[in-house]
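Entry 14. Structure prediction run on the chain below.
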Amino acid sequence: MVAAPTSRQDVAPPAAVAALRNQAGFAAAMRASAAGLVKLYQGSHLLNWLMDDRGRLLFGYFALYLHATRDPADPASGLNPTRMRMLACDLGICSPGRALAMLSLMRFGGYLTPDLDVVDRRQRRLVATDKLIALLRERWRVHFAAMAPLFADGEAMLAAVDDPQFTRGLIIAMVERFREGFRVTTHAEDMGLFGERNAGILICSYLIAAGEADDTVPPTRPVPISIAALARRFAVSRPHVLKLLRDAEAAGLIARSGDRVLFKPALAEGARNFFATMFLYYAGSAREAMAAAKPAGRAAG
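Output returned:
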């Protein structure tokens, strides 16, 4: 089992990524995590127009982060349109206009609601609803369940997911690492092409999970695909999927033959590094959250 670093500055050093990848259960964890990403996907053409899937995920994280870090003594703190626009724009997630549109859609969808405790309505503060928290917990549960066998305290991380104190600490640790410059693609440059395209990581995850049970992870054998099915599944156009695959082939990441796709070594290496880095990111953030949730940690806060 690998002991994940807890330092925010070095949560996934190359040595830790390599050690995690060498764990006997890593392939199974990667497949389970990839399959979970695909299963949990929720999207629409409108949402895709506003923001890509990576941006929507981060937007949800930022909303919960601002909600969780509200200072009762500071009326300007918490989740409000101004602070959300600033955070999303400063980190390059979206434009101010799209940030406001996403906030409106999240309110309409029941993920955010006005803060009824606000006396001055000009503050326009919002709060995260149980629906948003449940959605993010469902995602975390998939990944923590997949990675639990890889860490000595993996089961404890998974068991803590439903603890409100853990949820608060986890989102704070994750977003603050992101604000300090951490990126899951740090050791997976060859995943960049997929990460930069709408539904790219999801399509790559689909291909990883679609490998035969006795194949490697990512699969060594060609995987059958349907352009139309992928487009429907991830609410993107068929030309979008086709261009992604053509560009990946031109970059030497995949090979295509008819309706089959083969992972080339560069993409297989990048995908393994991507999931190992993600697991270490979750583990380091979870350990920080569990430490903060202890009675002494709460008293100190």
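Residues 265-293 form the longest helix (29 residues).
Filed with the rest of this week's runs.
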